[in-house]
Amino acid sequence: MKRTFILFFLILGSFSITAQDFQGKAYYKTKTTMDFGSWGDKMSSERKKMMKERMRPYLEPTFILTFEREKSVYKEQERLDAPGSGGRSGWGKMMSGNSGPIFKNLKTKKFIQDSEFMGKKFLITDSVNKFNWVLEKEQKMIGNYLCFKATAEIPRKKTISSEWRKLEKSDSTDIQNDYIKVNAWYSPQIPIANGPSEFDGLPGLILELNYEKTVILCTKVVMNPEKKIQINEPRKGEVVSKNEYDKIVEVKVKEMREMYRGPRSKR
Fold first, then answer.
1. Where are the domains of the chain?
2. Residue 25, strand partner residues
């Protein structure tokens, strides 16, 4: 009852914001714990430490969610990488399979992922995901915003790295469940049903996400910036559905796997 009253109060207090068109930017810091898998068993601790340091730009990128009432773009923040760090290019970027901005239109339910894979640009088109969120009782402060917890189970993404790990499994029973649990923290004080990456659908902006080995945390929100925001739908790239793109990734990974195994099998 207390939680319901607080939530109602926050939504009521947000009417002054929803009564007018508003825009904003939310800054997110992400961190993914590196999993070396079975091939890391033979690596020394020093080697692992060096690998983690080189992969830091890939594992800890920062993003900006530029939003208005119905549309948004989630894009990695540009950064100047130190010499020799490798940045978010090359193998690390390719392995993510999630390199470009994400455009969402919540009114039309349109989702577009601007992605570059194996040197080719794609526009992955889909409908905005419908998450079966379960609203929990827990609450906490993130910065100046009171947030509430929600949980959901979502399908595991297909990327080069995940498909590669799947092919490495000799026994299909070793493959983990195709669904993962997501913990989200949202604030009704920012009354838009949006959030970082593909996540949305809660009664307030999502300010924190936890799933598998990844944490996404909002570090700053700027409402109604002086410079008017213009959000445009991406147009450049081959238009494919998510299923078509997943198939492209799967086929290419198998090709790479065969190329990788070929020279070794001849020894």
1. 2-265
2. 66, 222
